[in-house]
Amino acid sequence: MAGSGYTRPPPPPLGEGSAPAPSAALYVANCGPAVGLTHDDIRAAFAAFGEVAGVHGADGSGVRVIVRFREPAAAEAAMSALHGRPCAGLAGRVLHIRYSVPAKPKAPVGGSLPVATSASELGVPGIYLVPDFVTAAEEQELLAAVDNRPWKSLAKRRVQHYGFEFLYETRNVDSKQFLGELPPFVSKIIDKIMSFPGANKCTSKLVDQLTVNEYPCGVGLSPHIDTHSAFEEMIFSLSLAGPCIMEFRKYPKGSWRAPSMVSGTDKDSIEEPQCIRKAVFLPPRSMLLMSGEGRYAWHHYIPHHKIDDVGGQVIKRNTRRVSFTFRKVRMGLCNCEYGQFCDSQSK
User: Fold this and answer.
1) Are both 46 and 154 inside the same structural domain?
2) Which of 145, 241, 250, 268 is the most buried (most CB within 10 A)?
3) Considering the domain boundaries, does residue 108 fall inside one?
4) Backbone angles phi, psi at 254, to 5 degrees
5) Which helix (H) or strand (E) segment is 146 a member of?
6) How does pLDDT run across 6-22, given as a tens digit for each residue?
7) Domain end residue (candidates: 41, 70, 102)
8) How confident is the model at residue 261, as a pLDDT?
9) Contact present, 289 and 236 (Cβ < 8 Å)
10) Residues with Cβ < 8 Å from 9, sequence gap 6 or more?
């Protein structure tokens, strides 16, 4: 992990029982901020065995850390005393410890991705972000309204659809199956989004479809571009309850490959040399607008993390996140200027 110089040891080859050679660094599982243990707590507990040089997150999970000692003998003593046993200094948690190994340097393109806190800092054309778009009281009213309505369960999240139902199998909508007008509890939101750039140019309804997504703690969203033929240009997404980081990726010629999940981390986000990557922090009650190039030519993606690093500050996703995504269903083909990303023009 960046900062420690060490990483998780690889599993031994099949048929061999060899383990990493003893070192001054330990890979400690079941231990970290996501289970209520600060790095200071961990440092204090391990300091009983020798001088601790540093405590670092082992990955983005928040439940695995690297503990570095000044001397290998101290690491060996900690391993002998704590592996597989409750640690009194860490609320009795049973720790699973292995010797860590030096991390291989990553290519610069796959290094740590800075997280913007504003659309201007993000620098993706057509992306706008308004913090505190609704008040805390309005947020609670919106959450109560959807919680009083039935949810549909997907593999990792729950959804509600209004106006038109989004069909996940085809990544499109059936424009002939109108579910009715959008519910009255979002009427103030719809009125307010008319203040966004370009919204006042609409000659008909600005939006007529709403998808409400409930993401449990740590659950994200795979990289995708909302289907061009399904929706018009402007897509509004209101974040409620919990925060997240949204990453934008621009791939050459619209091509991309699905991320490979390794031990809960997105390997693709580390080893993706052929795309431009930018990230922005979405705090609760913020409204995001995706339009123009940012909507049509950039994949958007929410990493599957329980904690996020925003400018060196650890942000815990310790609650669910609920998003209200407003869109206008397209009734014809898309003729945007981003043909290499457009399903209408590639048919």
Assistant:
1) no
2) 268
3) no
4) 75, 5
5) helix 136-147
6) 777 776 654 444 556 78
7) 102
8) 37
9) yes
10) 19, 20, 27, 98, 99, 100, 101
